[in-house]
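Example A, followed by Example B.
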Amino acid sequence: MQTRTIGIIMTVIGIIMLLYNSFNYVITEKVVDIGQIQINKEVNHPLEWSPIVGVVLAVVGVVLIIRKNK
């Protein structure tokens, strides 16, 4: 891949990470399984990251874009 393309991708990902600094995903777990009786529960798993990660990605992406043009 070209350096400029990687810089654009990193910048976009960095901006998205700044806007959305966490998300949840849900899985279903079996609690009880007795013959035909099943009890399930949904478990939320939050995934969070620091906004600093988004800033670093965006800055490095911009640097790669500018560096490629020179």
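Example B, a separate protein, is given below in the same form.
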Amino acid sequence: MNLALFFDPLPDTLTAAVPAPTTLAAYATRFTETFPDWRNADLALIGLDEWRGSAAGPPNPNRHGANEVRQRFYQLQKGTGTVRFVDLGNLRPGLTLEDTYQRLREIIGALLEENTVPVLLGGSHDLDYGQFLAYESQDRAICFAVVDARPDMAEPGPGTPPEESHLRRLLVHEPNFVFSLAHLGHQQYLTPPEVLVALEKLHFETMSVGELRTDRRLAEPLIRQAEFLSVDIAALRWQDAPGYYPANPFGLGNEDATQLCWYAGHNEQLSSLGLYGYRADLDPHGMAAATLATMLWYFVEGFYHRRPETGFGTFRFLTYTVVLPGNPDKLVFYKSRRADKWWMEVERLGDNSVKRVVPCTYEDYLNASQGDLPQRWIRLQALLG
């Protein structure tokens, strides 16, 4: 597949200067005159400037959000390992918004086939629908996570911007290939109660901004289970990321956002990341661009710290079996000897041939040790059924 047909090269203002030898710019292969060899890359950056799905309309065309973030990102110092990072340039939008979704589907699908992780940067949050569609060809149920100030579950229709209904569209897509969803960072005062009730009935996990900021570590298993992550910059408070509309003084801090990206980078099964919603014309001092560049840096650095966690029940893991008084009569937990990470074995009741080992927390193990079934086990049992 000739991906170059879908992209515009980066402007000279981003690539003309000779990069300092220790910065990421010196290690990234960027699309200027020759399209990068994406098949042999670990990570591929894709700039987006598609806003037809936004309620606020397009930003100032003279300020390309992805390019503003690149300006900051490529000045950062290279981290660990041998970086194989390509920048494919900026995606040319399709004739219609639906065409753009389909372009993303094809491009991301091609990258996934070569085990190259796409990183999508810019555009309205509904573009994660194209990110989602790329997984349909994998012919299996997938897990994904969304970070946003509210679940975008409005009823689609005339007058409803796609960015306000894209999550609903993902969940009702046919064929349905969603196994689980984790929604992180929602703000109670922005979220209709019936939306949270609907997600609970679907046995999906949610974590409010307050819960996440109280203990970020509780978000780690949710991200570790995800195969793709979609982040709306509107989940961050305006003071830390003044680059979205409408402004909101509450939300995640920049430290929270970078920690979530660090978790995502570490997750060896996460195969795509989308950072959406940044409007450069609302960011006069570049604060949000710097925040997004740092989030991207933490994702890349986390990626090069990946260590496959396989072989449950072998010497690589400590195994803990908790005896329970009811049904099930026991739960099996695994803890990595290398890192402070826990997993839980979930069998479908009455059919031990259906089994999954899922990320969990140490608190889940403690609850089981006290005779209480973890909520995570109960949700997974419902999903397996």
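On Example B: The longest helix spans residues 97-113.
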